[in-house]
## 1
Amino acid sequence: MPHPITVPRLGWSMEQGTFLGWKKKDGDFVRTGEVLFELEGEKAAQEIESLDSGILRIPPNAPTEGTVVLVGALLGYLVAEGEAIPQPPLPLGEGRGEGVAPAARVPDPHPNPLPRGEGTAHRLQPVASPAARRLARELGINMGSAAGNGGRVTAADVRTLGTAKAAISKARIISSPRARRVAKELGVDWKSLAGSGKSGRIRERDVRAAAKSPGIASGGTRFPITSRRRTIAARMSASRQQTAPVTLTTRADATNLVNLRTQFKTAGGEVIPSYTDILVKLSAAALEQHPHMAAKWEESHLVMPAGIHIGVAVDREEGLIVPVLRDVPSLSLLELAA
């Protein structure tokens, strides 16, 4: 029977990803373990391997390169010689694919399988604070999809996940056929509107109101973004709600800083800390002396973090990313630079 190819989950909190294209062509014979397609999650792009062998069949309405797809979404099929895909085929690129056995997998970095009960797939249940569980119930979020620092889920983690889910929900815009028709006639991008109907449904009056808005004519150019950039945007938005962004500037004598790095270079070790490494270490020491500088707003009170974690902006070809260095005070300068 045909084996459906679905979008795998690359991480605990992943709800969607960006399909980056097939590594095989329609009609190619695919063997188990061969790379089938490439998928980008929140943090990186990964090559997805085939779980089965068969002839690849890519229906005409399959997602194309750059398309955002939901976890569990159907991409295509692996079939035997002379075997046809289901008629009518399952909806491609939509839904969650519950009950559909995937024909692709993410390469497992841990070759030894985790222990399982007979016939039962165990799912880890994260430890969560009472405030986090209460907020999850209010936002309708499944705690199993939340991942916190050190395995403990806080209200901030739930709120961040809620922001990401809201962004995903916004992407699933619904509108009436009449609203779309009127939008086309008036030159209005209905996908950018906030609907006044049930569940945010966009109605004709929403389109006409937008057409009368003075800013609608100027419009602007819209560009698709990757899953990683979408996640960064959601987390930055959540961060601005929880902390007060403040920029302080001053002049300082950096002679000792330069001399310290010169000493490392003269010593000729395998790892030479950069100025950024040194500044991160100094920032961690400053936060230890002034812990309130790292406080955040959460549920009508200030929360002091359990550890000192520092994000360092890194400019890459695909855009600016901010990897987080965990528990910086426990790391030596050479460990930071490694």
## 2
Amino acid sequence: MLVVATGGDDPAGAEQAGDLNGARVVSAAHLSLKLAAISELAISSLAERGVSLRDARIIALTVERFTVGHVLEEQSPPPDVTGFDLETFRAAHPASVTAIQEYFEPGRSVDDLFRDCLAVVIAGAAVVGRQ
């Protein structure tokens, strides 16, 4: 497996790779045979359905990067909310706060959010693939 993972400010970083969480290892993997196999399957599957290789690669890369970004955010430590005033924030961002509250009605989770956001990415990819 050809994985290049760096940790911290040390460019060699290989010894620190064990300190990285899963998403950081994948996002730092510039050349990985496993990731290449996943990309190959995604690209070839799209191409078999009439999507150009160029668009198939863009679609696969977009989904890969969206997924890694989502996982990185999910694995990040919670922000420091010391001094955060929700009412001031709500007054400045009423549409955002209401939209978040409405989305996370009882029974909805961050996993639902991932699936719904990915559905938007895929719907956009379907439009690109038809062009």
